[in-house]
Structures are given as structure tokens and as C-alpha cells.
Amino acid sequence: ENTDYFLILPHVNKIFLEIKKYGSLVRVIAIVFRGEKVDLSCHLLCLRQMHVSMATVSLHSDHFGFPYSTADIMCSVPPGCGAPNYVTITSTAIDNDLKVDLEFLEVKNQKAKSHSFLYNVTSCFSTMYNFTNVLQLVQSLEMLQLLGVNKVAVYKTNCSADVQRVLDYYTRKGLVVVVPWSLSKYLNVSRRAKPDQDPGDIHYFGQIPALNDCLYRSMYRSKYVALHDPDELILPQTVGSWLKLLEQLERKFGAERCYMFQNNWVPSEFFLTPPAPKTLPQQDQWQNVSGINILAHLYSEPIKPPFGYRNFKTIVNPRGMFAVTVHGVLRAKRVCVWVDRKLARMYHIKSRGPTELKPKQMIYDGRLLNYSARLSSAVNTVLGETGLLPGNSL
What we know:
This protein folds into two domains: 6-106, Immunoglobulin-like, CATH 2.60.40; 119-393, Spore Coat Polysaccharide Biosynthesis Protein SpsA, Chain A, CATH 3.90.550. The chain is globular and about 70 Å long. The chain contains five helices and 22 strands. The relative contact order is 0.14. The strands form five sheets. Strands 1, 2, 3, 4, 5, 6, 7 and 8 form an eight-stranded antiparallel β-sheet that branches. The protein has a seven-stranded mixed β-sheet with strand order 11-10-9-12-17-14-20, sandwiched between helices. Strands 13-21-15 form a three-stranded mixed β-sheet. By secondary structure, the protein is α+β, with helices and mostly antiparallel strands. Helix 2 (161-173) links the parallel strand 10 and strand 11 (176-180).
């Protein structure tokens, strides 16, 4: 349904709608125009009986000043309707004669779980648009598997043909699920984080509703959910995998937490060799593959507090979260905790543009080299099997 006030698109692969039955409420994730307040009604279908109730709209506080915002539309489940099967939302003023034309969506997450999940860790990539960075995508997906990730949800607007080939490959392997994210058909999406950088209806291709959709999709499928971009890599410093790291953090802080990881900028403009006796693995075979080679960038910018604590990303227990955003969590059962950088930190490997930093000011961090042999072998295999790396290049 597309009105001036709210947007739910069940006919586009249900990309904006994930409904969670939570106690006596059904939660609908929607996109709402902040400049107007409209009374909404919930139409719940329970055992072939229609129940209509008033909806409550809760805007997410993070909208970065854009006119449209992510919102939770909450529907009270009336007595006698223990488990609603389908729901739709309308303006309360809608004519009764039109209700036969309404499209209903299935209520998901009906059965709560606290153990025995399908996946240990799911990563959420949102949103992929005009994406051509083949090499870094393959390296990131292979690194995530080395770290213990079982599933990666990619919210995709568009990408190059070679990137699509990679996504198709990982989809066949069972690692990746691609969620078509075509919000730009319905709103004037901004390509930047703030309106003064690129005006539009909604922040950054609708990144925030995509993240919340991924959270609720993964609620009872995955023990943990990581919310980050393909060019962001969270690396443990004392153990080899996320699972071992998260076990440590749960023992220290308890369950149903979210963990915040300090951001370290790694500009791809700097090609600096590691200090002796460290050496880089052979990488010549990748020179004709488009994208950034993360193994060639092992130097980060100096951290200047408090800026090092901005642009962080999180790994969460999804069952303890109610609403998430780009950098952090908006509503949760328990407060988020910072992870000491000596235990784990995030590396954001991307082009930073013009800089006044000199090579001698950059800080070497060779943690990634601990994975380099296994990573290089895995990347070569993927590039070979996808036809992106000629056989005689290996």
C-alpha cells in the first residue's frame, strides 16, 4: 500500500514488511512520512475471522532529518484471537466497501525460540547499490565464513554483472540470501547520509528499515546478528572466531546484549608494506579483478577520541532488540556495551579521498595476516569457480 503517509509493500517481495507477534502485539515495520499524523487501523485475520483495532505508530528516532522515517506500527491482538495469521494496515478513514481489495501479509515469528537456532551468526549487508567492488566482496564473504558466519543477507538495489555472478554463486552455496531492495521505485531515496549532502525522501537508500527487516527476519533463525557493511570487518584480537569472542562477551556481560565495536578507518589510498619480517601473500593474480584488495591495506588512521567511537557497528542477540539503526541500537531490553579494542575492533577498509595524513602517521595493524593464507586460498577458489579468474592465473 502506498499513501502519502505510510508505505508497506507486500507486492514487492515483502521487502518492507516483517511482522513479529510479541505477546499480545503484532509489530509491522513500515516507512512513514514524519510531517503528518494519520489514524491507522489494523485488520487481523484470526481463524477466518476479521478483527479490527486501532494501530499505534512509533517513529524511530534515527531518521537523519529526512521526511520519511522507519516506524513500528503496533497492533493489539484482541481477546479470542490468540495467533493472528494475517494482517494489513489501512487509514482509519478508508471506505468499508474498499476493504475487499486489501492485501494481507502473513504474521511471521509465531514461535519464539531461545536455543537450537538454524544459524549461529547472520550478517546483514544493507544496502547494496551501484556496487562494483567484486574482490572486496568475495574477500569479505570468505572472511565472514572463517569467523563463523553461516548466513549473509544482502539487501540489493543494483550491482554490476560480475557482482551479480558472485551473489549467484554464494546463493547456490547457501551462504547468501539476496533481498531485492527496490525502494527507489516508490520514494526519492538519498544516496548519502544527510539531506544537505543529497536531498531526498529517506536516508541512504532506506538503510534503516532494511536493517530492522533483517533483525526480525533473523530473530528466531540466528543466535547472533551482525549489522555491518561489506567493507567493514570486525576482527577478534585474542581468539580466531566470532563465536569464541561472543562466548567470552556473554560470560562477562550476560545474554541478550548488543556489542559495539570501535571503528578503525583503513584508507585504500595507502599501499604500505608491513614491517619486516612480515610479508604479504602473493596477490598478483587478483590485479585484473575489480575492487579493493583488503590484504594490501594494513595501515589505519590514528584514532582521535571521541571520533573513534563514531561510525561503530554492532553484533547483537536479536531476541533482546526491538529497533536498530546504522550505528547502534535504538530500543533493547538491556544497554549495549563497548568491546575493548584489545579483544576485538572493526576495520573499515575503503577509499577516504584526499587526506593530509602522511604514510609515517599511519598505524600498522597486521591482525588480518593471521587469516591471509586461508583467505587467499578460498578467494582463489571462488574467483576461479565463478570464471572471474582465469585458470592459468593461479
